[in-house]
């Protein structure tokens, strides 16, 4: 029987990955640890990190859009260097993490890269081979033909006269009621 852990925030429907990672602090002091254990949650667009899995308020959050995720063994010199990855974006802060294992680091990178591809594909790519005439119900080339076709139909029945304000068609053999 698996233990169900408490979900740390309200938007739990879109969680794609969560777990403990060590996050390199931006400003580490001489006495403080350079790497801090954080409960990390990845949803479709946002990366959250908490003090622990029961925390209600995140210590930090950032949109992963425009970031790139990659393994980064240069971040550590110890035995855990193969467990490191980073999220980088030109002009924005770089986030550096250490996963519990090399496989876990790869999984985080894969999940983030998958999401980034998904985010960039929200704009449907234009492919000239699949080019079709765009649908336009207002100004299409068919509208000219439709107009001339309707004119032709009306010319076939020259005996029918319609008043300008009358929106109803007068059928042959029936006369409109006069008021």
UniProtKB/TrEMBL annotation:
Entry GO terms, CC: cytoplasm; nucleus; plasma membrane
Source superkingdom: Eukaryota
UniProt keyword Metal-binding present: no
Keyword annotations from UniProtKB, A to Z: Cell membrane, Cytoplasm, Membrane, Nucleus, Phosphoprotein
Start and end residues of each stretch annotated as Disordered: 129-161
Principal cellular location given in the protein's record: membrane
Domain PH: 14-117
One Pfam family recorded for the sequence: PH
Compositionally skewed regions (Acidic residues) per UniProt: 129-140
InterPro entries in UniProt: PH-like_dom_sf (IPR011993), PH_domain (IPR001849), SKAP_fam (IPR037781)
Cell compartment(s), UniProt: Cell membrane; Cytoplasm; Nucleus
Keyword Nucleus attributed: yes
Coiled-coil ranges from the UniProt annotation: none
Biased composition (Low complexity): 141-152
Name the record gives this protein: SKAP1 protein
Native species: Podilymbus podiceps
